[in-house]
Task: structure prediction
Amino acid sequence: MSMITLFRTSQIYALDQIKNVLASHIRQLPDKVSSIGVPLKILRYEFPCEPVDILTWLHNQHVPCKIYWSGRGKGTFEIGGIGVADVVEGKDDINYTEVFALMEDRLCLDNPNLRYYGGVSFYGAAGDPAWQSFGGYRFVVPRFELLRREDQTVLAFNIAFKDIDKDNVAAILEELDRIDFAPTTTYRRPPKVTARHDYPDRQGWEAAFAQTKGEGGKFRYDKIVLARKSVFDFDVYIDPVALLKHLKDKTSQCFHFCFQTDKTAAFLGASPERLYKRVGDRIETEAVAGTSPRGASREEEAALERELLNCSKNALEHRYVVDAIREALGGLCADVRADAKARLVKLEGGQHLVTRFESVLHPGVYDNAIIARLHPTPAVAGCPKEEALRAIHEIEPFDRGWYAGPVGYVGHEQSEFAVAIRSALVNHDKLSLYAGAGIVEGSTAQGEWNEIETKIGNFIDVFNRK
Result:
């Protein structure tokens, strides 16, 4: 066994007493460590507490490193984390087998709530200096977590055995003392936009779109997804957690995430797309492709629904993703079950076609194999995959970084990743918004440009709040 939970209780603590209770346990660690375990293990304390809004708590903490994750929809798992108890990271391309083995060595069955949170870049090594602090991959066990599962709120503390000595414990106690459990906060109003630059701009987009066609105007690929980066300058620095709060208020049916590496450096977003969820040996995934706006009236909404469901271009784009996921799962699972036909999923400002899959993994199949086979899907790359990836790298005038990569968490019994679309990179007073469009035979440059504008609309609406 490579990990244990040192302390767990069913008692519910008041917010004004929980720090003192946890501090008393932390102080005893240097005297207990030699009789408890080995350096590889990570100890975890869990204390149920009075309910407090997770984002409120996270916003009130004045620390550089913050993590936020919430599942899709109401009542799902939600966590805010601060500090670093353990980290698995690298600047280069990820070796999924090695990286996931490092995390699995520290994860065990009797500590199901200990998880690594993080993500992987779309390409691997970061080329743009703005992405340097995120690297090719980065997974963190937070030092302190406030999480909500079902109807219970829990404060958790994590520490690796190798870090248990009197000096470290003294520093951790100081960190604990600075944690603010105030039940309310004041979110700053979104700052004012002073400039916007698109990469590529309209002319560049037309040129990029033209590169998807060969002689005689014949489309070169079955499908290719080209993205755009829109950089907004603001009059003051951006508060990542405040921005996520405003975004989450508008995007309830999405996964929400924020990986903050410094006070004004973060990657955050509201993604409608699950890459996969694993619970034990069961896996769920989905194909999300095909997009249209929402209607301003009931009649317009119904017309747009019919258009999306019957549009040959959207049906073709969706089918490529469905076929690719089915093929990927075929090497991982014994029996793949999928929706008989695509459904509509409605979001604020847009709607998509979705086909859901579920199955049981073959014995010996773990997260490293799942993520390596599923990422990237044709929903964010294209097909044939390798040809599309080469073209994206040549055509797009920017580094995708973590955009469209897998973000989520890894645990022993459960792991979940979303696809990091509808996302943004915060860099002091600049915000880079990323979104892409699936291009197939019949697509138009104007239509795909408009689709991208729809996809970043929720962010732009946040800026325009009065």
